[in-house]
Design goal:
Blueprint lengths: L4 E2 L6 H5 L8 E7 L7 H14 L3 E7 L1 H4 L6 H17 L7 E5 L5 H10 L4 H5 L2 H9 L6 H16 L4 E3 L5 H18 L7 E3 L34 H9 L16 H14 L3 H7 L5 H27 L2 H30 L7
Parallel strand pairs: 1-6, 2-3, 3-4, 5-6
Amino acid sequence: MSEIIKENTEIKCSDLVGEKSNTEKKIIFSGAQPSGKMTLGNYLGAIKNWTMFQDDYECYYSVVDLHAITVPQDPATLRRQTFELLAQYIACGIDPEKCTLFIQSHVIEHLELMWVLNTMTYMGELNRMTQFKDKAKKSELNLNAGLFTYPVLMAADILLYQADLVPVGEDQRQHIELTRDLANRFNNRFSDTFKIPEGFMPKEAARVMSLQDPSKKMSKSDSDPNAFILLADDSDAIARKIKRSVTDSVGVVRYSDEQAGIKNLIDIYANLSGKSVEEIVSMYEGKGYGVFKQETAEIVVETLRPIREKYLYLLENKDYLKEIYASGAVKAQAKARKTLRKVYKKIGFVARER
């Protein structure tokens, strides 16, 4: 099997998935759940990279609301958060003119292909999914079939669009493996139908850590609001959270695993400023944590200010957001339907007459 996750900080077509055809762009699919506002970790670890793909790839970016309902959702909150996530996608630089931007539940083919793939997925494969094991421990009262089978829906999301490349985090490696296994299994049984996708995970800032516990990833579900920075946070909130971030008693700005809190802030600083780790460490030689935190906060504030402003503007213009997701669903469905027709024909379903 070829390498499942490719790592590179330079996002170039030839580096990641081979030479690009002169007439056909490689395809990328990715999505996020509308489970709350995005964090700085989501931006640096995923969305910032998505924007870099836009000119060289055919990109399909989705608000994956079907995945969100594996845990109980308040209907009004889910609708609001779907609009919020779509607005944040655009505010972060995802261009609807360059990408297909859509809501997952608006393209029914995701569920249709999931059912076909369910019949080819082994129980043992799903039992081995570490995310299911983790969620099962936390959600024993809500241990539903959706939590068990959602990796199959994720595979359908990717395979529907014949994706060559899938930007993923470290915790998604198993899902890419399953997607590749299912694609190969279908192709071997029914002849070539699906492309075999590969994951892409950037080396830098793939994991932005909690500001209060740098041993774990920054997450908006953290019970401590000082542990994460939201893209929608105002300047005062950002400065306050960075000032309160956990460091150590060493008092020296150094990039070291033994100083995990400072290392995390250096990673954030480097990714937002474009400076190297070495440059940053040199800049703060002989200076205390107070100065370093203050200037890190200033960089975060200045980076996120235009994102926040555009996000708030878009939320006041929902008719525009509706136009975006409606046209995106039409484009996504055209691609998805083409794949699903092939699948249905190969497994022996009678073709629709209309």
